[in-house]
Specification:
Elements lengths: L5 E5 L3 H7 L1 H9 L3 E5 L14 E3 L11 H18 L3 E4 L2 H13 L4 E4 L11 H17 L2 E2 L4 H9 L29 H11 L7 E6 L8 H9 L6 E6 L10 H8 L4 E5 L5 H6 L2 E4 L8 H8 L4 E4 L14 E4 L4 H13 L2 H18 L2 H21 L1
Parallel strand pairs: 1-2, 1-4, 2-3, 4-5, 5-6, 7-8, 7-10, 8-9, 10-11, 11-12
Helix pairs in contact: 2-14, 3-4, 4-5, 8-12
Amino acid sequence: MGKKIKIAGIATKAQGIKWFMLDNLRYAANNGFDVHVLCEQTDIFTYENMVGISFLPQKMSRGNVSPFEVVRSVWMLYKVFRKERYDIVQYTSSNAALYGSIASWFARVPVRIYCQWGISYTDYTGIKKWFYKSLVKATCLFSTRIQPDSFGNLEFAISEKLYRRKKGNVIFHGSACGVDLSKFDIIKKKEWRREICREYNIPQNNRVLGFVGRIVPEKGINELLEAFMTLGIDDVSLFVVGPYYEAERLNQEIFNKAKNHPEIYFTGPIGNPAKFYATFDFFVFPSYREGFGSVALEAAALGVPTIVSNIKGPTEFIHDGENGIICEVKSTNSLRKAMKYALTMDNKEYERLSRNCYEKVKNEFDAKLYQHEFVQDRLQLYKESQKQ
C-alpha cells in the first residue's frame, strides 16, 4: 500500500468501539491504514488494544437530545474531520451515526459508512416511529455506504425505503466483527464451568441457562425472568450477566421477585463473559430486536446452543432444531415451552445442536476471516471513491 488510507471509527460510548470496532480497526492498522477512534473519554482502552491507533476523545450527546445538542455535536465532529482529512469515516449507534454522517458530508469525507447494527424504530408506533425513522433515513442519505450486520436487516431496510439496494452491503457472512475463537476458547470450557460453579456454589449436575447483555425490557428480560420462575423444573440455575443500570424500566414486581430467587444470579457488568458462556447449557436470548446478535456467536464458539426469539439477525445464524431453538417474540409462554424443551432433550440431541453451532461459527464467523474481509471492503470503497 502506498499512501496510508486514513480511517476513523466513531461511536458515542467507548464500549461500542471496544466491542464491535476495535479488533477490525487494529487489523486495518496492522495492514497499513492510519486509524483513529472517536468516542467519549475513557480508561477502558488498554495500551495493547490501542497499538497503532490514535484516540481522539469527543463527548457526544446520547438519547433524546435537543436541536442545539445535535448542532453542537455535528460542529465538533466537522472541525475534527476538516483537520484530519479522513479518507473513510465509519460510525455506529443512532446519535453518533446521525452526527457523523452529517459532519462527514459537510467535511467532504469521500467514504462515509453507516454501520447499521440494528434498526431502533421498529418497536415504535405513530408519530414516534415516523420521527425516528426520519432520523435513520437522514443518516442513510448523508452516508455513501450502509452496512447492516445481517442480510435480513439489509432486506428490511430496503423494503422500508431507507436506502437503495446499491448503497448497502453486508460484510462476509454478517455480524459486526465475527467472534474471536482464541478468546472464546472451547478447549477451556470444562475448566471455566467448574470455576464458575464453584464460585457461585452451584452443584455440578445442575443445568444452567444464561443471558448476557443489557438488562432492559427490549432484551426480553421480563419474559425471561417470568418464564424461568414458572418453569417447574428442579435443579436449574439462571445467570443474568450484564449491567442493569436501567433496571427501573423492567417490570418491578417480576424483577424484585427474581432478585430473591435462590437459583437466579445477577452478576452485574463483567469484563469477559467467556467463562459464563462456558457454564451455560443453553444461552437464552429473547430480544425484541437486534442487528445480528453477536452474543449468540460468542455462546456458539463455546458449543452452547441458543434459545432465541424469532427476529431478524440472530435467526440468520440460529436455525430451529439445527443449532438452537426459536420461540415467539414477547411471549413468556412460548419462551417457557422452549426452555422446557431444551432442558428435557436427550444427550444425543443436545450434542448435535452443540456441535452444529460450534462448527458454523468456526467455518463462517471466525473473527480472523472477518477482519480480512473488512479490510478488503474498505480498500475497495476507497479505490472506488478515488475514481469519482
